């Protein structure tokens, strides 16, 4: 199973929705709250190709994008394969 990292902020409803979907899929993920760990924000921006919004989601080495991108992958039936890789 691929490792999953999600960069978040505690008050972000999109972050909560993305974490909810991953939890419903039964996968473990590493959450990095960029408010609690502001030194990680620059890492997120670099890995995400300049994106500064949260959430930013990574499955393995692949940058998935944000919450809408995660749900779009699920709607297309492509999320399961990424999670199992």
Automatic annotation (TrEMBL):
Look up the record and give one Gene Ontology term from the biological process aspect: cell redox homeostasis
Read off the Gene3D superfamilies from this record: Glutaredoxin
User: What Gene Ontology molecular-function terms does this entry list?
Assistant: glutathione disulfide oxidoreductase activity
Keyword Cytoplasm found: yes
In terms of InterPro entries, this protein maps to:
GLR_AS (IPR011767), Glutaredoxin (IPR002109), Glutaredoxin_subgr (IPR014025), GRX_bact (IPR011900), Thioredoxin-like_sf (IPR036249)
Coiled-coil ranges per UniProt: none
Q: Which key words are in the record?
A: Cytoplasm, Disulfide bond, Electron transport, Redox-active center, Transport
Q: Which Pfam families match?
A: Glutaredoxin (PF00462)
Listed GO CC annotations = cytoplasm
User: Where in this chain does the record put each Glutaredoxin domain?
Assistant: 4-64
Q: Which domain of life is it from?
A: Bacteria
Which family does this protein fall into?
Belongs to the glutaredoxin family.
Q: What is known about what this protein does?
A: Has a glutathione-disulfide oxidoreductase activity in the presence of NADPH and glutathione reductase. Reduces low molecular weight disulfides and proteins.
Among NCBIfam families, the record links this protein to: GRX_bact, Uxx_star
What is the protein name given in its UniProt record?
A: Glutaredoxin
Q: Give the species this sequence originates from.
A: Microvirga aerophila
Q: Provide the taxonomic classification.
A: Bacteria, Pseudomonadati, Pseudomonadota, Alphaproteobacteria, Hyphomicrobiales
Q: Gene that codes for this?
A: grxC
């Amino acid at each position: 199973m691929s490792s999953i990292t999600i960069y978040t902020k505690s008050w972000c409803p999109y972050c909560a929705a993305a974490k909810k979907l991953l939890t419903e899929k039964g996968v473990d993920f590493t959450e990095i709250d960029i408010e609690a760990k502001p030194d990680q924000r620059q890492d997120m921006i670099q890995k995400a190709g300049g994106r500064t919004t949260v959430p930013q989601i990574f499955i393995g080495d692949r940058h998935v994008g944000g919450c809408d991108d995660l749900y779009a992958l699920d709607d297309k039936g492509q999320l399961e394969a990424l999670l199992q890789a």
